[in-house]
């Protein structure tokens, strides 16, 4: 199914209703996703991005129903990642000489994926492409948002910003516009997308958005590569990105733990009780790393001013679910956040020390040395956990 976005601009992408995991097995897509591709029919015919490789035959077949493929004058590759460029081999086999416009890094990415020397034309910020009827495509490099080759393309007169991964979300809905879908779900998927994918590049997000805004171009529509198209007050998602890029935090503490025989869980609950006593307005999230979705946990970390991490000691280390989430936290490079650790032990008791090392590697500011409880915590140990929580709560007021 294709549909008209505005004037001579059409959506020609794919809705992937069944997708549950993305980036291999790293990102959960509970509400699936779309691969948004766009067709512009002016004096020149322009295709902006394609779709993920498993849908390449379907995509090319559908596109051929919309336009004679030989009439496509230009292909714009805003990003070379396979979920955006995967149908290029199928398409280029039919129209091999069609020019592909992308960044210099985009050539490297596309050649690296497909090992083809297509008719590449490199562009940089400010370069333009006249497509007739008084309309021009303007290119803006979006390096590291979230790959080195990323760029956005702006269509004059229609005032459409084809933003690629920026401002998107993994969310499929039969109604493809931001004003027609569930708003709570939309914004949850937006912040999850930012937290899990764009957090490491927040400084660049702020810089690049300012570059776009300084162009003083009117933006009526933001056409992303995943999820909804922003047509109702599209600037609202840009404003959110600016907010999220500035070491974002809410009045929240997230407690992440795993437990063997429920001792570390009871510690987590007692510490949370103590934090609530001295800081009654703060939001506290308790999340078992072995049972909750990892990307949802990371989203809560993104929203938090501090995290507490807990694990019993096992094999002189920590439970594997906590090792996994701590590695993911380190990779995302959160800034301006505090932390503390806790855990049960039987004899050697290294878990708290190991968690502190991991927190420091992730650049969290340690609030204290952490707290341990031997074996299954008794009433005295739990009271110490409550007092521990009180101290943390008072530090974060």
Summarize the helices and strands and which ones pair or pack:
Blueprint: E1 3-6, E2 9-11, E3 14-16, E4 21-22, E5 27-28, E6 33-35, E7 38-41, E8 45-48, H1 56-66, E9 74-76, H2 82-85, H3 88-92, E10 100-102, H4 104-114, E11 120-122, E12 128-132, E13 135-141, E14 151-155, E15 160-164, H5 183-198, H6 202-214, E16 221-224, H7 235-244, E17 252-257, H8 263-278, E18 283-288, H9 294-303, E19 306-310, H10 320-332, E20 338-345, H11 351-361, E21 365-366, E22 371-374, H12 379-395
Parallel strand pairs: 8-9, 9-10, 10-11, 15-16, 17-18, 17-19, 19-20, 20-21, 20-22
Antiparallel strand pairs: 1-2, 2-7, 3-6, 4-5, 7-8, 12-13, 13-14, 14-15
Helix pairs in contact: 5-9, 6-7, 8-12
What does this structure look like?
By secondary structure, the protein is α/β, with parallel strands linked by helices. It has two domains: 242 residues, Metallo-beta-lactamase, Chain A (4-Layer Sandwich), CATH 3.60.15; 141 residues, Rossmann fold (3-Layer(aba) Sandwich). It has twelve helices and 22 strands. Strands 1-2-7-8-9-10-11 form a seven-stranded mixed beta sheet.
Give me some keywords for this one:
single chain, 2 domains, six-stranded parallel β-sheet, alpha/beta, 35% helix, Rossmann fold, Metallo-beta-lactamase, Chain A, 22 strands, elongated, 397 residues, 12 helices
């Amino acid at each position: 199914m294709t549909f008209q976005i505005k004037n001579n601009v059409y959506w020609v992408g794919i809705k992937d209703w069944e997708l549950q995991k993305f980036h291999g097995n790293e990102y959960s897509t509970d509400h699936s996703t779309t691969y948004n591709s766009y067709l512009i029919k002016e004096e020149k015919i322009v295709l902006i991005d394609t779709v993920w490789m498993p849908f390449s035959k379907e995509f090319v077949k559908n596109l051929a129903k919309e336009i004679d493929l030989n009439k496509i004058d230009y292909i714009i590759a805003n990003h070379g990642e396979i979920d955006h460029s995967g149908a290029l081999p199928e398409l280029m086999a039919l129209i091999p000489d069609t020019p592909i416009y992308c960044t210099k890094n985009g050539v490297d990415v596309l050649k690296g994926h497909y090992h083809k020397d297509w008719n590449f034309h490199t562009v940089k910020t400010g370069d333009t492409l006249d497509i007739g009827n008084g309309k021009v495509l303007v290119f803006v490099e979006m390096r590291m948002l979230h790959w080195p080759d990323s760029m956005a393309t702006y269509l004059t007169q229609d005032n459409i910003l084809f933003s690629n991964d920026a401002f998107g979300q993994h969310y499929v809905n039969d109604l493809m516009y931001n004003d027609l879908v569930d708003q709570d779900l939309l914004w949850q998927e937006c912040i999850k997308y930012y937290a899990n994918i764009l957090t490491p590049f927040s400084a660049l997000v702020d810089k690049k958005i300012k570059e776009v805004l300084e162009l003083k171009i009117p933006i009526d529509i933001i056409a992303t590569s995943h999820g909804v198209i922003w047509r109702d007050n599209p600037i609202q998602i840009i404003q959110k990105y600016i907010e999220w890029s500035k070491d974002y935090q809410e009045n929240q503490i997230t407690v992440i733990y795993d437990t063997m025989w429920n001792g570390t869980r009871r510690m987590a609950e007692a510490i949370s009780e103590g934090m609530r006593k001295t800081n009654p307005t703060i939001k506290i999230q308790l999340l078992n790393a072995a049972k909750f979705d990892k990307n949802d946990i990371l989203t809560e970390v993104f929203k938090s001013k501090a995290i507490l991490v807990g694990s019993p000691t096992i094999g002189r280390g920590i439970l594997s679910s906590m090792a996994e989430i701590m590695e993911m936290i380190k990779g995302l490079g959160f800034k301006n956040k505090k932390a503390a650790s806790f855990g049960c032990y039987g004899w050697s008791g290294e878990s708290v020390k190991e968690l502190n090392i991991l927190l420091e590697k992730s650049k969290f500011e340690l609030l204290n040395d952490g707290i341990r409880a031997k074996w299954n915590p008794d009433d005295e140990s739990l009271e110490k956990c409550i007092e521990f929580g009180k101290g943390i709560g008072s530090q974060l007021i």
